[in-house]
From TrEMBL:
It comes from the Eukaryota. Belongs to the AHA1 family. InterPro entries: Aha1, AHSA1-like_N. One of its GO terms (molecular function) is protein-folding chaperone binding. Coiled coil: none annotated. It comes from Cyberlindnera jadinii (strain ATCC 18201 / CBS 1600 / BCRC 20928 / JCM 3617 / NBRC 0987 / NRRL Y-1542). This is Activator of Hsp90 ATPase. GO terms for biological process: protein folding.
Length: 140
């Protein structure tokens, strides 16, 4: 995707929402949640996710909603991250249909999910910066 961009100076954007969807669909179900009492069965991601290069610096800007379906023997519920934003580390969660297991989800499962959320930005930039920046090539 690299375009002619001397010294990586000009603004270049890349839509990374498909990458983000794949990332969360892959990473979140790997979590061992509450001694495998819960498993993540579906992840829905909507919103915007872009990686940009400007003046030689790679940055990301995202504002997404994540809906994570958790299933146990007792219940199937949805954990919604209402505003997953690039410049915040505290997120608001909405809990649906967890019943008596809500406290368990809040205390044991959300902290594990947060680890993936906190790692996302670093992984996103690492995965995309090669596409956005030209390598300096010495000319003879």
């Amino acid at each position: 995707m690299v375009v002619h961009n001397p010294n990586n100076w000009h603004w270049v954007d890349k839509n990374c929402l498909p990458w983000a969807k794949e990332y969360f669909a892959t990473q979140l179900p790997k979590l061992e949640l509450s001694n495998n009492q819960f498993k993540i069965t579906n992840v829905n991601v909507t919103g915007d996710c872009d990686v940009s290069n400007r003046k030689g610096k790679v940055i990301c800007i995202y504002d997404m909603i994540l809906e994570i379906t958790l299933q146990s023997e007792e219940t199937t519920g949805t954990l919604k991250v209402k505003e997953f934003i690039h410049d915040e580390q505290e997120y608001e969660y909405e809990y649906s249909n967890f019943g008596s297991t809500k406290a368990l989800v809040q205390s044991q499962i959300v902290p594990e999910i947060q680890k993936i959320l906190w790692q996302f930005q670093e992984d996103l930039i690492k995965s995309q910066e090669e596409d956005l920046q030209l390598k300096n090539v010495a000319h003879e």
